Amino acid sequence: MTDSAVELSNIVKRFDSFTAVQRFSMSLESGSFVTLLGPSGCGKTTTLRMVAGLLDPSEGDIRIRGRRVNEVPIHQRNLGLVFQNYALFPHRNVFDNVAFGLKYRKVSKADIRQRVNNALELVQLPDLGRRMPSELSGGQQQRVALARAIVIEPDVLLLDEPLSALDANLREDMRIELKRIQTQLGITTLFVTHDQSEALAMSDKIVVMRDGVVEQIGAPREVYDKPVSEFVAGFLGAANIVDARVHELDGDNVLLQVDDLGMIPVPRARCPACAPGTAVRLVLRSEHLIVQRADEEHSHDGLYLSARIATVDYQGQAIRYFLHCGKHTLQALNMLDGPAFNEGDSVSLKVRHRDAVVLETPR
Q: What is the pTM of this model?
């Protein structure tokens, strides 16, 4: 039997006539890092706030460690919370901010001091206990908020966009640090973000949401490589999605006819139920399309399409090309190794068969 720290069963949340979360069910295994991912307004923060006890579900059950907590107030759920704005007390120093939750749990002063010092050591702020929040950088404030959440030894850690207020470089550093701490403590974590790279890098499981509905749940690689819908394919990374039709089954491959691109073979495992004549949607991720010189020798592991560079988007160590290919405009994201192509250049676009994803039921 799965060891579940949190179970959501058919959760619904309505605000008057608006349904923010629709029939949401999910299980968080003990010690796992689960991310709710989706655009603004998709219901991910509403879901987290129901787990926290900040909102009551309209329907369904929430269980933490097997106990139904629908009517249990937030302070009795033993949860650690970190919000986007950190919510530190400006008039308390770092030590007192971190110790706040312990003072209501009948912990002795000696134990409070030991546990706060241990938490500050864990977040790499061992000497800043007497500082005030206003004297800290954004990254340091985020670490204090995390220390305050974990010092109470919660059953579940809830993180609502905790990195979004940081600049890009610090955000990446804190992402690594947060995952290190979570792994070291083995604490079950529910993380909310709209950032795909955060979700892919940190999660054991990703829950992709749209309009209050769960689109897909799976491991990062599964959700990325095998999206079940156009929304998931497009939201997780840059994807080229084009109409296609199954032409024929050819051994281990399915031949797809794409207008203006010709016949594109994909592994039958990618389209197990495909039958000749079936209309499908073909997903070609931008990082899987390789831009080459038009006269470069072709290998045998892909299909080559003639294309012309329309726009060049330089990104430092990578470069994104927008290409005209027949009637289609495709984008390709390649690592920059040598001179870049220029707008107007005629090129060859390599499509590897194994990288194609087929959506049999467009939605």
A: 0.90
